[in-house]
């Protein structure tokens, strides 16, 4: 009898520990698994063809075959422009290296969502072991607030400064000027991506079944979204004038943050950063990049990004190209969303017309990265 009582108590305890909405979670996981299997089968031939293309000798990219300034179209175009204006002779690595301004050997990676930041975070984690520095990231939150009140900015600044150097701190948050609160300046880094491709990626990311499985496991009481909202495709959303896909200049989206644009993560927490696609927000974002960021990489130009990170932030990114190309890109595709369908180029062009400031900011970051790369070929001046 004593044994039976203990077993009954054990099973009662197990039942209590389960989430309240277990049936919803199980159903969602089952649907996700079925969809994954379907997509995997449907896309198998396509993936095999892609692999055949990747195996062609001219297309193989490894850590020993990084694109040089003479073969990368963006860098090459920048070189011709600087040569034509005479700026190439005045380009100095010292002036482009904000790492030298850092007062604390801590890298602050306030990562933008859907720009490859999850991959860069994994790269940093591996490099922390290889290069012997601390790795710290913000915990998963129920509600991820990217814009903070002044007192929360000060608290975050204190947290970043509290880590023992050398180290890296990673969090989804708008640019926070740590030194403005009396703390030592860290080394800021980030990534950007073509803004229209990014907004499409974000649109389908928050609709992916596995996204809700992860959220439901972490926070069991979160309600499941409306199935109609989940099924809504981006093209229909844009063409129908749905508010979610309506990008109006000056519009302000209240709440935890405006994930339509990446410039907000550089503009900061000021009220001028709230209106969509405005000159004020654009100029603040540019100024933050120029004055504070050691490197802002570009997802579409990872070769150049890795090279610049290795040279401008060497304590942390030594060997980054080798680790990325030979470990992560080959064997560990991260956060790839198989549920994102192709979007018609005509739809993208409609969106681009309303993303003029976002595109300008993206091009600004690319040009800065290209200048940093080209400056590596020049002698360093004290």
From TrEMBL:
One of its GO terms (molecular function) is sulfotransferase activity. Belongs to the sulfotransferase 3 family. GO terms for cellular component: Golgi membrane. It is a single-pass type II membrane protein. Keywords: Glycoprotein, Golgi apparatus, Membrane, Signal-anchor, Transferase, Transmembrane, Transmembrane helix. InterPro entries: Heparan_SO4_2-O-STrfase, P-loop_NTPase, Sulfotransferase. This is Heparan sulfate 2-O-sulfotransferase pipe. PANTHER family: HEPARAN SULFATE 2-O-SULFOTRANSFERASE (PTHR12129), HEPARAN SULFATE 2-O-SULFOTRANSFERASE PIPE (PTHR12129:SF20).
């Amino acid at each position: 009898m004593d044994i039976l009582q203990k077993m009954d108590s054990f099973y009662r305890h197990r039942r209590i520990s389960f989430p309240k909405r277990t049936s919803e979670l199980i159903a969602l996981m089952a649907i996700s698994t079925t969809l994954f299997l379907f997509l995997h089968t449907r896309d198998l031939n396509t993936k095999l063809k892609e692999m055949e293309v990747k195996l062609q000798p001219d297309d193989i990219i490894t850590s020993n075959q990084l694109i040089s300034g003479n073969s990368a179209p963006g860098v090459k175009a920048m070189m011709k422009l600087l040569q034509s204006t005479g700026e190439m002779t005045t380009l100095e690595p010292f002036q482009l290296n904000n790492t030298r301004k850092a007062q604390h050997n801590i890298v602050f990676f306030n990562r933008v969502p859907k720009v490859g930041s999850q991959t860069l975070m994994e790269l940093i984690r591996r490099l922390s072991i290889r290069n012997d520095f601390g790795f710290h990231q913000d915990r998963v939150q129920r509600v991820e607030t990217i814009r903070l009140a002044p007192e929360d900015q000060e608290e975050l600044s204190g947290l970043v400064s509290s880590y023992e150097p050398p180290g890296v701190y990673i969090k989804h948050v708008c640019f926070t000027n740590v030194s403005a609160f009396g703390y030592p300046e860290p080394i800021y880094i980030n990534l950007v991506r073509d803004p229209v491709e990014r907004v499409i990626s974000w649109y389908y990311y928050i609709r992916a079944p596995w996204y809700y499985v992860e959220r439901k496991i972490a926070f069991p009481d979160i309600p499941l979204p409306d199935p109609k909202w989940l099924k809504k495709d981006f093209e229909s959303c844009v063409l129908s004038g749905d508010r979610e896909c309506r990008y109006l200049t000056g519009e302000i989206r209240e709440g935890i943050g405006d994930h339509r644009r990446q410039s907000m993560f550089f503009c900061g927490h000021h009220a001028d950063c709230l209106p969509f696609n405005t000159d004020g927000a654009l100029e603040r974002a540019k100024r933050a990049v120029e004055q504070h960021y050691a490197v802002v990489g570009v997802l579409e130009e990872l070769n150049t990004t890795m090279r610049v990170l290795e040279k401008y932030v060497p304590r942390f990114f030594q060997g980054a190209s080798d680790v990325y190309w030979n470990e992560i890109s080959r064997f560990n595709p991260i956060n790839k969303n198989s549920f994102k369908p192709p979007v018609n180029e005509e739809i993208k062009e409609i969106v681009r017309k309303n993303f003029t400031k976002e595109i300008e900011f993206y091009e600004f970051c690319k040009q800065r990265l290209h200048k940093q790369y080209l400056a590596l070929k020049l002698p360093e001046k004290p």
